[in-house]
Every structure is written in C-alpha cells, then in structure tokens.
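$ ./design --mode recover --in tokens.txt
reading tokens...
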C-alpha cells in the first residue's frame, strides 16, 4: 500500500515509521511512503505557499494553487485516482473500523495542513475525507499522518507477524486488550495468573475475553455501549459485574 504525503516538511518522513514493524514493511515493499514537498509546486520566486486570509485575522492560510499542483502530480505519477484525506479537527475521529476500511484502499493521498489551515476552495475541490485523531490542536498534519499510516499498516497482510496478533489488539473487536504477562513468573511479589500456566487453551481464551470485557467496562464503558455483544460476551459481562459488585460489598 502506498501513501503519498503532501507536506511542507518532507524531511520528517519516514521518521519513526522507518523503524520496527513499519520499517520492515517498507524494506519488504509492503508499504511505500512518498513525501511530496508542496513548496516544490509554488510559482513564487521564494517558494511561498501561504498568504494572509481575506477578511483579516491572525495567522496565514495555505494557498490552493501549490496544493492542487502537488496533488495532480501524484495522481499523474500513479496513473490512478486515490482517496485524498485531510487532517482536521472537523473530521471524523479515527477509530479501528475506519482504519480497517482505509486498509482496503490500494493507496492514499494524505494532505498535511499548517498555519491556520488551507483555502476552502481547494478543500472542496480535492478532499474526499477529513479525519481527526483527537479533540486537540497540533501544529500540523504530519503527526496525524504518521498515526494513520501506522494504524492502517498493521491491517495489511504480512506487516504484523501473524493475523492473530493484529486481531487481538485493543479496539480490533471493539474491546480493550486483555492483560499480558511474560517471564519471570514472579516479579516484585506479583505472580502470573495461574490460569495462564495451566496449558488449557479453551480456559485461557475464556479468561482473556473476560479480562478484555472487564477492562473495557472499567476504562471505556462507552465502547461496550456501542458493541453488539455475543451471547457469550453477555454472559462474561454479567460475571464481571457480579464480581465487581462482590468486591465493593466486601471492601476489596
């Protein structure tokens, strides 16, 4: 899968994406990251790409011309249309269902804004979707682009070690992840739960699903409210609630 990134700071990429899982994906040609410098498409002798906003106000606005020319260049080089995403607080919040949806695309064009934003006319002209990674303000779209690329790349075949590993991550099935343990068996007086040492895979699987539901209930109950639970998950949820109530009643 390819990502054409329209940015004022191409030197930022690949950055942390060049390491670990995504780094190996790039080396193995499973992932292509192509930063495109918007300033290269300026027609100003100083490579200027921004100007003051009409109507006054603080800050500068990115001009439509350089963005459109940069956008056209990547479409021409790919010889195909690609979905174009702009990172904005006004966009849909990025979540796992959206990540899985985007992973079905052959590639994406990611527009990273700066200053006070981009000219509204180019926004209407080329943007297919606006995406937000949270309700806070960042300096530009480069960090959100990296977050999206990292999340989407995990869904691509061959990027993560096994399909099961990706599918067991938090949010993949609408729930938070269960607790993980490794050696040593005892650490600072705390033991690994006995069930994980039993070798009984069915019981271990049930324990993990129950812990996942418990964590979600305690930390992100909104996710449970949105999820269509299976009958088994409903039973596990009842057990968790009964255990929590028992702990409260007994002062634990």
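writing sequence...
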């Amino acid at each position: 899968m390819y990502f054409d990134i329209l940015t004022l700071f191409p030197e930022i990429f690949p950055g942390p994406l060049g390491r670990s899982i995504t780094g190996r994906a790039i080396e193995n040609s499973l992932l292509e990251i192509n930063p495109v410098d918007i300033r290269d498409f300026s027609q100003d002798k100083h490579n200027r790409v921004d100007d003051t906003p009409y109507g006054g106000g603080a800050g500068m606005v990115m001009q439509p011309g350089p963005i459109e020319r940069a956008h056209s260049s990547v479409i021409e080089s790919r010889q195909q249309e690609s979905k174009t995403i702009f990172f904005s607080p006004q966009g849909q919040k990025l979540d796992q269902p959206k990540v899985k949806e985007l992973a079905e695309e052959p590639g994406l064009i990611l527009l990273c804004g700066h200053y006070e934003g981009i000219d509204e006319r180019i926004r209407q002209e080329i943007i297919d979707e606006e995406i937000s990674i949270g309700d806070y303000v960042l300096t530009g779209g480069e960090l959100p682009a990296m977050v999206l690329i990292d999340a989407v790349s995990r869904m691509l075949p061959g990027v993560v070690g096994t399909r099961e590993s990706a599918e067991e991550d938090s949010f993949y099935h609408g729930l938070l992840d269960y607790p993980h343990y490794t050696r040593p068996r005892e650490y600072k007086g705390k033991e690994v739960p006995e069930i994980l040492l039993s070798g009984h895979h069915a019981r271990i699987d049930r324990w993990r699903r129950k812990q996942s539901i418990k964590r979600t209930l305690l930390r992100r109950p909104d996710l449970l409210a949105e999820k269509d639970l299976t009958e088994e998950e409903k039973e596990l949820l009842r057990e968790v609630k009964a255990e929590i109530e028992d702990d409260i009643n007994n002062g634990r």
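exit 0
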